[in-house]
Amino acid sequence: MSGKSPFIESIRRTMRVRGYALKTEKSYLHWIRYYIRFHRMQHPADMGKEEVVAFLDHLAADRHVSANTQRIALNAVTFMYNKILDQPLKALNFKLANKPRRLPTVLTPKEVTLIIDRLDGVHQLIVELMYGSGLRVSEALGIRVQDINFDNNSVTIRNGKGGKDRVSLLSQKLKPRLKAQIDKALAIQVEDNRSGVGPSIPDALGRKLPTAFRNPSWMFVFPSIALCHHPVNNKLCRHHLHHTVIRKALRKATLEIQIPKRVTCHTFRHSFATHLLEGGTDIRTVQELLGHTDVKTTQIYTHVIGQHYAGTQSPLDRISEQSVAYAV
């Protein structure tokens, strides 16, 4: 089934009316297409519970996907049946994916420094922001001028994972270079405005405030080099840098240093959380900074540092300390 099929397009329109993130839209449509292809192009309206269970079992038994990937596929298919076809699915008894969850890769402070020193310019600044504030690469790239608060050293992440907003730390070390980067971005906006274009704006906001693209607060801190067309209204605009730009620069830097770890953009978010916990930061504070809904998600970092809870000390260390005290 092609991406231009009326059925797929009806799902796309429904998701946009409901305000789903473009990333979620893309993911859901991928899994819905996969579901249809798996059942040899049958229309979903002619299928139901049994076909959904067979699809989910296939993902777990044949594709060996993670539990999280299987859940996303389930959410996509459930959305289609509940919201598009009005055929709610009930009591699905499917095989749960049980691929073990791996501990995240974490860099040492020295490794973080080596990588950052190997980068330069805007690439270096973005990686430092990801590590210093615990941001996902999409969050760092999507920051607008209004999201940086230099007075209280904070950065606001809007419409993050799950559509949530949160506030995180802003390293004082980055303030001079961030201010310089914002000046460059605003200069680009002024030039774009002369041609009647500006930063990409959420479609609904653009209709409500047609001149918002001229407001400096809406400019991306890390604007793309080239103009593009808005994914919803097709208007010419300037988006932020694409994530592949940072990933390529990071890969080049890690290969040159030859760090024996698989380093991705997300590794710096993992390292942010782990280093905070190692430094004694309360796990609830780390949870809030990361934007985790459940503290159980944050607790995986306590396992990374070899403790069930941050700050827990081995009983062997305690008796060793007591022996030293007694000897004195």
Automatic annotation (TrEMBL):
UniProt-listed InterPro entries: CB, DNA_brk_join_enz, Integrase-like_cat_sf, Integrase_catalytic, Integrase_integron-type, Integrase_recombinase_N, Integrase_SAM-like_N, Tyrosine_recombinase_XerCD
Every Core-binding (CB) domain range: 2-85
Alphabetically ordered keywords of this record: DNA integration, DNA recombination, DNA-binding
Single GO biological process annotation from the record: DNA integration
A GO MF label: DNA binding
The Tyr recombinase domain, residue ranges: 102-314
Source domain of life: Bacteria
Similarity annotation: Belongs to the 'phage' integrase family.
NCBIfam families named in the record: integrase_gron
Name assigned to this protein: Integron integrase
Organism this protein belongs to: Arenicella xantha
